[in-house]
Design brief:
The protein is an all-alpha fold. It has helices at residues 4-34, 43-85, 90-98, 100-113, 116-189, 193-286, 293-342, 344-352. The chain has one domain (4-161, 233-352).
Amino acid sequence: MASLDQQIKDSQKQIVLTQEKIADMTSRLDRVAAKAGVEQPTIDIANATLQDVHAHTEAMNANIAELIMGLDDVTAGFSRDFEQMRSKTGWEKFVGVFASHKSESMRQERLRTASIDDKLQDLIGKSDVITRLLEGQLTMLNEQKDKVEQNLTDTLADRETVVDTLENLRARIQALDPKLIELENKVAATTDASDRTRIETELAVASKQHNALVQDEQVALAKSQTLERYIEAGKTWVDSLQNQAATQMVLINKLQTDTRQRVVLYDALTKSLKTAQQQDVAHRINEIGVKTDQEAQAAMAAIGTATNSRMMDMLEAHGDHMVFARKVLEEKAKADERFARRFSEIVEKHDKNLYGG
């Protein structure tokens, strides 16, 4: 798999490309709405373009989902590194057989140069970068949705007007039909040339009026169908934008919860390292020779008093810390469940290492 930095760059490019295609799709629908009385939405807008946008959106979300799981993997790696750092390495233990102070100084130097804080802060920084990318995409999706919804509102009003006009035309045509039939029957039954000519003239005028109404009906019907197709395309696009927004919110929630969990994890592991160092100091004091036993006892008594005071503070604060930690873990479990449900195929590939299959 690519590095986290490279994956972030890939995600940035995919988000830009997807935003361009989403804006283009909305623009196409806007142009159709403006020409609704002239032309109908093309198959490209209704199907091909929409599918193209979906393909890019799915690729973008798949990349980000894998990136989020990559962040989880790195976090787990940090946790393992922390645990290993609590203990001395084999070489440090070997040196400790001959020089305990040298062994401890080696360990402290290793901890100092490990740049643990930098690594975790870099990871949290990457989470924040991805979150900002997703929030920008979410904002864009909501803006596009609002724009299309406004166009849909206008178009629905236009179609309502067109349908009213169409119904009015049909009522007028229906009312004119009996008159045409009556005039046609009169022409057939009239034997007087003068009367026939008069009736035929009247029939011609009525027929011309009827044809004009039929032509208007056809225009109104075509416009109604055009608006209807645009409305359906618009509804489909709004639904798509809403689904995309929901996906972005799942990803954002997962990232934000993970970041909070990483902060808690970092705090706990850092304290664990400090505790390990304090234990080593205590062991060294305990190993002082007989000649310094009294001084050691006095020092230990002072340390014990301070330790007891510190221990009470820690115990009192522990309750609040555990409540917060459990809350974060509960939120993470919920975020992970939503994430896994929406990206089940990607999670399966990650967990089973099925890349390239």
